[in-house]
Predict the structure.
Amino acid sequence: MTVSTRATGARTGLQTAALATGGVFLLVGVVGFIPGITSNYGAMGMAGHGSRSLLMGVFQVSVLHNVVHLAFGVAGTLLARTHQQARSYLIYGGVIYLVLWLYGLLVGDETPANFVPLNGADNWLHLALGLAMIILAILLSPRTTSRRSRERDLNA
């Protein structure tokens, strides 16, 4: 089986997963800037642990944090164009989120080193996101053809 590097044609499951993940990150990045969905919106800082804004009243956010979500969303959308790029996005993105989880655990909520900012809820969400992204990449990597292509091959 070969992996297509073309940006056109039917998507593999891995590409769809990367695109969906990117879409969720874009959505989260946008809603992080919407008052009401983000509580204490007026207390949102540019960066740092002093930002008191909470996405959905739970996850601590700042302008930097929201921009990071937007950047991950754009990356997922662009890298979903090929199977290999989608795989790299999910694996390396997952690793980055696992590093963020460890960073959040080690620096604590109220220290100056908490520049993103991260709270306990963010930390555990980052663990779940990191593991989910890596698991998706591993489970979907062997499937290098789209369902439409497999059905066409079976009917030929």
User: Anything to note?
Assistant: Residues 83-107 form the longest helix (25 residues). The helical segments are 13-31, 63-79, 83-107, 120-140, 147-155.
